[in-house]
Design goal:
The chain has 244 residues and is an alpha+beta fold. It folds into 2 domains: 153 residues, no CATH class; 80 residues, Alpha-Beta Plaits (2-Layer Sandwich). Helices cover 51% and strands 17% of the residues. A hairpin with a 2-residue loop joins strand 1 and strand 2. It is a multi-pass membrane protein.
Length: 244
């Protein structure tokens, strides 16, 4: 009875050993790699956000596994070690929702929000001792973000597709007419055209206006580069590439 009432040690008690420290550092290191990649890509949730999410998820998992050992008693106090860890998934959902925005008819931030969710999952795997799985998913992340896009571009260059582009151009010189003519010569279909409100795009040179086009056709992924070469065009940005 005295052993049950004794205070646990501050350091070195259950759940505070070398193994748990290693699991925290694995979560820290792996999610820092993901955060570094997001930072280099200029995304809103970069190195600090991804690392904090992954390390915190690992800590919460460890708390759920070991944080209540001092109150457990056989046949008297029994707890489910997954009850706290399960809240990580729903909590990260709120964080991801804050990253995703909808602007000018396009959704931005989906990939970044998914990366935050992935960092939480990697942290949970590391915190639960599944270090091999955590390392494997980290490697898969880089395969996805670095390998899938070039493959998708090459495939789309051979097949028909659709993209949204925002073009900033000099007003009063017939630039928009030249843009539409360039699309017609390449058999790209214009399915939607929307001019920016007055005063947008922000930061554009004086005398420049913006327009959003939805184009479809074969080899459509070449459109941003080709349209940017038209005289009078000052900027072309593809809207469906998750800029956030």
């Amino acid at each position: 009875m005295q052993e049950l009432l004794a205070d646990p040690p501050f350091f070195g008690g259950p759940g505070q050993g070398t193994r748990q420290i290693v699991e925290l550092f694995v979560a820290f290191g792996l999610t820092a790699l993901i955060g570094l990649e997001r930072e280099i890509q200029g995304k809103s949730a970069g190195l600090r956000t991804q690392t904090i999410v992954g390390t915190a998820a690992a800590l919460i998992l460890l708390v759920s596994k070991y944080g209540f050992q001092d109150v457990l008693q056989p046949d008297l106090v029994v707890v489910d070690p997954s009850r706290v860890a399960a809240q990580i998934v729903s909590g990260i959902g709120f964080l991801g929702a804050g990253i995703i925005i909808f602007r000018r008819g396009s959704v931005h931030g989906l990939t970044t929000a998914a990366a935050v969710w992935e960092s939480a999952a990697i942290g949970m795997a590391a915190g639960s001792g599944l270090l091999l799985l955590a390392c494997t998913v980290t490697a898969m992340h880089f395969m996805i973000v670095l390998g899938f896009m070039p493959f998708a571009r090459r495939l789309a260059a051979r097949l028909s597709g659709s993209i949204q582009v925002h073009i900033t151009y000099e007003d009063g010189r017939g630039v928009l007419r030249n843009i539409l003519e360039a699309c017609r010569r390449r058999n790209w279909q214009l399915t939607e055209l929307a001019a920016d409100p007055p005063g947008e795009p922000l930061g554009a040179p004086a005398g420049h206006v913006g327009v959003q086009l939805t184009l479809s056709g074969t080899g459509i992924l070449k459109a941003p580069m080709l349209l940017a070469d038209i005289d009078g065009v000052s900027g072309v940005r593809q809207l469906d590439e998750d800029p956030d």
